[in-house]
Amino acid sequence: MEPDNPLLDLYILRQAGTGRPKICFVPTASSDAQGYIDRFYDAFQRLECTPSHLSLIQPPTVDLEDFILDKDIIYVGGGNTKSMLAVWKERSVDRYLKTAWENGVILSGLSAGSICWFEEGVTDSIPGDLTRLEGLGLLSGSHCPHYDGEADRRPSYHRLIQSGQIGGGIAADDGAALHYVDGVFHRAVSSRPEAKAYEVRAMEGHVVETVIPTVYLGEAAGL
């Protein structure tokens, strides 16, 4: 999302704990859009890592599981979350990603690539009002990305929680990232000074939103 601001990309790479981590972009949610793949390489070829991508339209190998498990980091792009999960299930990629997670591979992503790891999330995959979508369930609770970036995200998340259509969970502004370790929330970080994360839940018939302390990564970088 931020071609000229690599703070979150660098943060993800550091989590691998190795000098030149192998990071694989999964662009399924955008139907493997070539422009999106090109932007990934433009961003990560500048950094200390070995980038690759996994296209399911033109797979790099028959053995997708081995291809995924060979990576240090999986980075899932944005797009249509519902379609992405359906394609993953058909090709068993959902199972391979779970195995990768259990083996210590770092799973990351933005938008659809953020929603997918949770039990449920707020999606615009279906035309009309934003709706609930079931995710892979690797992380508990619900999730709403683009909390400040799209006008209908916050009110839709509140509406779904208050009506009981979705459980409480965690929301993130554009530029904010949620870091989990072994399935447990660790901390929130951001590439923008004002970007925040929030705990959002129902309490006594009302929706309560609590700001989560968020570390601006630019401070450590002297920005």
TrEMBL record:
Q: Which domain of life is it from?
A: Bacteria
Coiled-coil regions, chain positions: none
| Classification via Pfam families | Peptidase_S51 (PF03575)
List keywords of the entry alphabetically.
Hydrolase, Protease, Serine protease
Q: Where are the transmembrane segments?
A: none
Instruction: Kindly give the InterPro entries that the UniProt entry links to this protein.
Output: Class_I_gatase-like (IPR029062), Peptidase_S51 (IPR005320)
Family affiliation: Belongs to the peptidase S51 family.
Name used for this protein in its record: Peptidase E
Lineage start: Bacteria, Bacillati, Bacillota, Bacilli, Bacillales
